[in-house]
Design goal:
Layout lengths: L7 E7 H13 L10 E3 L2 E5 L12 E5 L10 H5 L16 E3 L2 E4 L9 H11 L5 E9 L4 E9 L5 E6 L2 E6 L10 H10 L5 E4 L8 H7 L4 E6 L2 H13 L5 E5 L2 H4 L5 E6 L8 H7 E14 L5 H12 L4 E13 L2 E10 L1
Parallel strand pairs: 6-7, 11-12, 11-14, 12-13, 14-15
Antiparallel strand pairs: 1-3, 1-4, 2-3, 5-6, 7-8, 9-10, 15-17, 16-17
Length: 342
Amino acid sequence: MLLGDVMFPAIRVPKEEAERVRKKAEAIGAKDKGRLITVEGSYVIIPILEGFEDEFKEFELIEQDNPVFAREKSIHDILRDVIPPELSEYIPRAYKILGDIILVKIPDEISFYSKEIGEALLKIHPNCRSVWRDLGKEGALRKPNLEFLAGDAKVTETVKVENRCYFKFDVKKVMFSPGNQYEKMRIARMIQEGEIVVDMFAGIGYFSIPIAKHSKAKRVYAIEINPDSYYYLIENIKLNEVDNIIPILGDSRFVTPLKIADRVIMGHINCHEFIEVAINSLKNSGYIHYHEAVPLAVKDRPVKRLKEVAASLGKEIRILNFRKVKNYSPGVIHAVVDAYIY
């Protein structure tokens, strides 16, 4: 049973640093007063508001999948007299707040109470304007499949703020994954001054916008095949007032520029067939950040795929890093490999 996605930003701080960091977060208005500080072993988890991530660069940014809310009533409290006790275990404990819109995954076992769940979420988050049931993605372009639950059904467009970047999108047309927030900034901080970057699966600008705003990249080629995502990529370039992104509408297999990039981002979790295109987009040498949804049983598969394609093109490869971005499904992780090709 999937109860929801990771979505609440926090920083993971050693206990000996916690009090100092807590005071700083409160002093600058960064602490999220709606969530409680928690302890995990020798670390303290301090919830922060979106947009303040850069103030705590020395610590690990995480996304809480089970935050402890500092509220008088939880969704379980509100629904106690609505949903029978024997079904209470299915009440969602997590949900996405995207701007002023809430997306929630509701197990089939309590789908009869979907409307009541939506209304309960609006009581907890009165600043939100609509609630939608997340029924997954459809088709090759992964269009969201949503069911209206509560609020104003006309409110489908919103603006999500992350790392002082603005992402405008329509929740019924394009997907947004807040669980990749740390990864987006990790890449942006790796960009060296004057680099040319190719973002092969740009979406609405998930990686391209943070790179343009938080690095000194000379140019970012942002490629997107979905017309709806491409529309919002253009909107977000304007909204963030960046001028070094070149948007390209089309299939990355055919429109990716050749021998131009210092760095290529392959941010789609199912893009192994594009590795050759990515390598050919590099200058004589450069970096590739390759993402993949990989079962733990074959955890080394992404590295093997990169090495095999590099060898077939007569290239050498040095693996710089392999890290888990987040859990994708039971036994499967979303991983990223940082590689240098030469």
